[in-house]
Hints:
Blueprint: E1 13-17, E2 21-23, E3 31-32, E4 36-40, E5 43-48, E6 60-63, E7 68-71, E8 73-78, E9 85-86, E10 91-92, H1 94-99, E11 103-108, H2 121-137, E12 144-146, H3 158-166, H4 183-195, E13 201-202, H5 217-223, E14 227-228, H6 240-249, E15 253-257, H7 262-274, E16 281-284, H8 297-307, H9 313-319, H10 322-328, E17 343-347, H11 357-362, E18 368-374, E19 377-380, E20 394-397
Parallel strand pairs: 1-6, 2-7, 8-11, 11-12, 13-14, 14-15, 15-16
Antiparallel strand pairs: 1-4, 2-3, 4-5, 6-20, 7-17, 9-10, 17-18, 18-19
Amino acid sequence: MAHDAPQAAGPSKLVIRNIGLILSGALEKPILDGDTIVAENGKISAIGRFKDVNTEGATTIVDANGTTVAPGLIDSHVHPVAGDWTPRQNQINWIDSYLHGGVTTMISAGEVHMPGRPRDVVGLKAMAVFAQRAFWTLRPGGVKVHAGAPVIECEMVEEDFKEMAANGVKLLGEVGLGGVKDGPTARKMVGWARKYGIQSTIHTGGPSIPGSGLIDKDVVLEADTDVVGHINGGHTALPDDQIRCICEGCKRGLELVHNGNERSALFTLRTAREMGDLHRVILGTDAPAGSGVQPLGILRMVSMLSSLGELPAEIAFCLATGNTARMRALDCGLIEVGRSADFVIMDKAQHSPGKNILESVQLGDLPGIGMTIIDGIVRTQRSRNTPPAGKVPEVVAK
Length: 398
């Protein structure tokens, strides 16, 4: 299994030079002017032209060779269990494989596949605290897994949420995967969670696993969770009129997932764009699941939404980075000074008909990943999962 990735032993300074294109992750300005990024002690300290930034004292220098640097991708919807193993598919190293798909941060929507998952209040609270602690101690490949997302049950009271928050729990698993499936109870508990700084997500659509059930627009709107989880279904989506009603009836996050209904994802995208609400759209995979593990799931969503949704590629990447970072209150996902130095370095795939990476993605091709960086540390070089890139970065000094 992949083990905890090493952290920097002392002061560090990363310089990425000779960048061909910088994608910021921010909808308001998705492309930045510059050819160099500097990060010190895991945080971005400068972005600009090589001649204008201080590169002295670098401990690591990466020559981007004219490739594209973007924020590390964020998967807003995963179901981790124990380290880098998933019992859902009895597969190991799935998180490390996601890193090779450009994902540097993951958000748990509930550790629902844990064998023997406790349903009693004491047990589910204990498991949430355990998962939060375990995944912040163990970072497979360096990937940041925000876990410890309990699935709420009807017997819970306000004091349970206060206790979990005091012990570091910051997420709820998908509302609807446990005993709470009605709007009034969900709204009450979501309110308690919000009061103590715990963010919430709701299951949307038909049942996905035994124990889950149909969660329709009425329950979603009344529950008022922070994120409308897989609004395009996981896997079964709601009818279009219900999806539109959710988009128009709340101002919460609209999560599109790989393991959902593609047509419904495109419908949601069009609706959000018509409303001027692209900032609400975030991306996840909803894996591991019955359909397996999708290491390239976020890249595939970016490509699909760009090519079939007619969304400029630089905007599509924002849905997988900055939008999620802002909605989830993360310090990554955007290339700006002070943020975590988490990057994916890419180029158009070899032989793609697109003239550059943006055009190739808008044509439906996946980019080739040449390197991932987390906290200013190079974690992987040429991806074992993506098509080979036309150009690749290289570490030229360390």
